């Protein structure tokens, strides 16, 4: 751990931006590489993508090669799949076509795969030293990188350089709002934030945009049931997590609450990959306690309103409380920077 502590934020950023110092696709004989254990926890796309990109960030932090392992299966595919009690067996193929990070090396034929459930930094460093000492090559198949990532989330900043989504230049400020619902009406309901939290945060940004004289649009990304249906422990994607049946109906979302937000465009039950793109390229993003919007926040270059969750925030993010309140001063500074940059871009 002492060796890890010597990696300052500046060093970590350099490693993220420069990448592994070996030639890409070059074969190696000893050492370690990091990859995703894609056969251990096949849950939702957002959760799995966070693991993949988090493991990539670890490879940059520890200056070791990254080997890409694609999604094998997506076990939870959103509210629509829950409603019809079935998902697509090819959904992961769509994600894999977009969310692919090139591998740094060719894995040696004599590599030794090792599974690490929730590794700590000391585990990575120990195996790296062991492989080099014994002249072996270990392919570390990691499931959950969060124990290391949460010690210093600045290592996640390098994900902005590998985002599959690039923003389209515009002088209209886009505010995206992700409201996580879906199966949370039935399980993990403690993660849900009330509509009022999102609305308060959105209106704080809207009021500031008006004061700055900045044109804007607001985009709401969420899911709403098309009919009333019953979820049981045998329902698709539940995997025995439900103790008793739960009724879900369209009125539970109270989607009309959001109508107070001006210039609002509702993206309800939209294609999930298009939703990820919209949130990743927004000028500001209000996230839920959900990996599905946490990943776009890491991809994006804009303002982020963050509610405390398992994934920790980057240092410039605006930390909101359960009521949706956050620092107006920090928001003003970031909006001023956005306006200044876009005004300069308009000049010949």
What features would you describe in this structure?
34% of the residues lie in helices and 16% in strands. It is built from eleven helices and 13 strands. A six-stranded parallel beta sheet has the order 10-7-6-11-12-13, with helices on both faces. A three-stranded parallel beta sheet has the order 2-5-4. A two-stranded parallel ribbon has the order 1-3. Helix 9 (272-280) packs across helix 10. The protein is globular.
In DSSP terms, counting alpha (H) and pi (I) runs of 4 or more, how many helices?
Answer: 11
In the CATH hierarchy, the architecture of the largest domain is 3-Layer(aba) Sandwich
Please count the beta strands (DSSP E, at least 2 residues each): 13
What's the number of domains?
2
CATH classification, class level of the largest domain: Alpha Beta
CATH topology of the largest domain: Rossmann fold
User: What is the terminal-to-terminal distance?
Assistant: 52 Å
Low-confidence stretches: 1-15
List the SSEs and their pairings.
Elements: H1 2-5, H2 9-18, E1 26-27, E2 31-36, H3 45-61, H4 79-84, H5 91-98, E3 105-106, E4 112-116, H6 121-134, E5 137-142, H7 146-149, E6 173-178, H8 195-211, E7 216-222, E8 229-231, E9 246-248, E10 264-268, H9 272-280, E11 284-286, H10 291-299, E12 303-306, E13 318-319, H11 328-346
Parallel strand pairs: 1-3, 2-5, 4-5, 6-7, 6-11, 7-10, 11-12, 12-13
Antiparallel strand pairs: 8-9
Helix pairs in contact: 2-3, 3-10, 8-11, 9-10
């Amino acid at each position: 751990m002492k060796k890890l502590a010597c990696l300052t934020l500046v060093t970590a950023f350099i490693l993220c931006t420069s990448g592994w110092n070996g030639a890409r696709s070059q074969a190696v004989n000893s050492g370690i590489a990091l990859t995703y254990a894609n056969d251990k926890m096949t849950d939702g796309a957002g959760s799995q993508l966070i693991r993949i990109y988090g493991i990539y960030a670890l490879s940059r932090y520890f200056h070791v090669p990254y080997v890409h392992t694609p999604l094998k299966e997506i076990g939870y595919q959103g509210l629509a799949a829950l409603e019809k009690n079935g998902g697509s067996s090819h959904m992961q193929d769509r994600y894999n076509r977009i969310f692919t990070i090139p591998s740094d090396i060719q894995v040696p034929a004599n590599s030794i795969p090792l599974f690490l459930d929730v590794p700590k930094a000391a585990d990575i460093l120990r195996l790296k030293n062991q492989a080099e000492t014994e002249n072996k090559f270990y392919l570390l198949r990691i499931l959950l990188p969060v124990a290391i990532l949460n010690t210093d989330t600045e290592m996640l900043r390098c994900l902005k350089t590998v985002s599959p989504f690039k923003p389209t230049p515009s002088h209209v400020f886009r505010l995206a709002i992700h409201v996580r619902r879906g199966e949370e009406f039935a399980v993990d309901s403690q993660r849900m934030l009330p509509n009022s939290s999102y609305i308060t945060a959105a209106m704080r940004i809207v009021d500031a945009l008006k004061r700055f004289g900045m044109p804007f649009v607001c985009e709401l990304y969420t899911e709403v049931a098309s009919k009333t249906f019953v979820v049981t422990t045998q329902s698709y994607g539940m995997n025995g997590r439900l103790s008793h049946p739960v009724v879900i109906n369209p009125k539970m979302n109270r989607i009309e609450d959001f109508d107070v937000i001006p210039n609002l465009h509702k993206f309800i039950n939209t294609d999930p990959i298009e939703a990820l793109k919209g949130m990743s390229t927004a000028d500001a993003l209000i996230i839920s306690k959900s990996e599905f919007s946490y990943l776009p926040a890491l991809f994006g270059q804009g303002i982020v309103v963050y509610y405390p969750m398992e994934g920790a925030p980057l240092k410039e993010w605006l930390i909101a409380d359960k009521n949706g309140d956050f620092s107006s001063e920090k928001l003003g500074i970031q909006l001023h920077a956005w306006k200044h940059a876009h005004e300069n871009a308009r000049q010949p």
